[in-house]
Structure prediction request, 217 residues.
Amino acid sequence: MPRDRENRRKQQNTRLNIAATAARIMAEDGIEDFSLAKRKAARQLGGLSSYMLPDNAEIEEALRTYQSLYQGDEQRERIAYLRRCAIDAMQTLTAFRPYLCGSVLSGTAGRYSDIDLQLFTEDSKSVELYLLNRNFQYEVGLVSYFVGDREGSATMLTLDWQDVTLNLIVHPAVNERVTLKSGIAGRPIARAGIAAVRLLLTGDAQSGEAVHITGSK
Prediction:
């Protein structure tokens, strides 16, 4: 019916507006939490109903568009720098089977973004001992993840690396062979080993465009 089509069109326009506003918030304010940016955007637009909220994929697409339009060269240079820093950290931490994940891998990292590395080891304390023996100062936290519908938690060690915040998410070794998700209904967390990140960096240098990896490994 015409009224139903009009309502669907309005709802879609609302979702697009929220996605665009959330993307601007993430790009300009350095927020990397999609849910937080989504809620801030909804409040700015009048406290909209949850069923009108876009999903993370819609916001990520809007973020790429915003960065391309308003932060093009700056953002590409920042991505390349963060990936070089990530490679350096991965080389240092090679004994713990590091993988790059998060916005530096996806190519949506901005001015204030952290580098996120997943580490896989039989003994999470061995990572802390490694850092302590090299006089790294770090803070300890926890992050949750899902394997299927099973929730787990991993230690996160946060430290300064070449003037960039580096988050080391320490998983048990068995998790290297499974698909990790950030939420029970979320997408798999994409990750890339050092060889793949080097290829991404080569792509940045040759084409001036971010190269993206999808999937869990």
Remarks:
- Strands lie at 99-101, 115-121, 138-147, 150-161, 164-172, 191-192.
- The radius of gyration is 19 Å.
